[in-house]
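hey so u asked for the seq, here:
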Amino acid sequence: MGIRGIVLKLVGWLKSNQRGQSVVEFSLTMPFFLVIGLGSADVARATYSYIVITNAAASGALYGSLNSSNASNTSGIQSATLANTQTLGGSSPTTSSQVTTDSGGYQAVSVTVSFSMTTAGWPGVPNPLAIIKTTTMRVMR
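ran it, structure tokens below
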């Protein structure tokens, strides 16, 4: 076997090692990318849930602000609120409302919507994650 044969064997050995190296690099980096991907999915779910809860609280407050009879109609406020939360998975949110009167004699309705979202259990992130939004609107006369 001449020098040429030895060089060809060495080149063949290096090529096969590079394939193995790629597999090792892939197996070392894949868990990192999976954690990043799953964490991004949880952040996206939490953001979407916050937007839905915010819109639901605004809808309930808008219903209550139409007139003074709607402001004291807690079941109507709850129906207006929950109509906007049908796209949330899991448990349904809870709704509470309160009517207040300021020093000028104006009534305002406050609607609070709270939702408990289950996360993947990341370190430092509470599980379940509580999403709470309160919206206040003045009642029209």
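Strands lie at 94-101, 107-117, 129-138. Residues 3-138 form one domain.
lmk if thats what u needed
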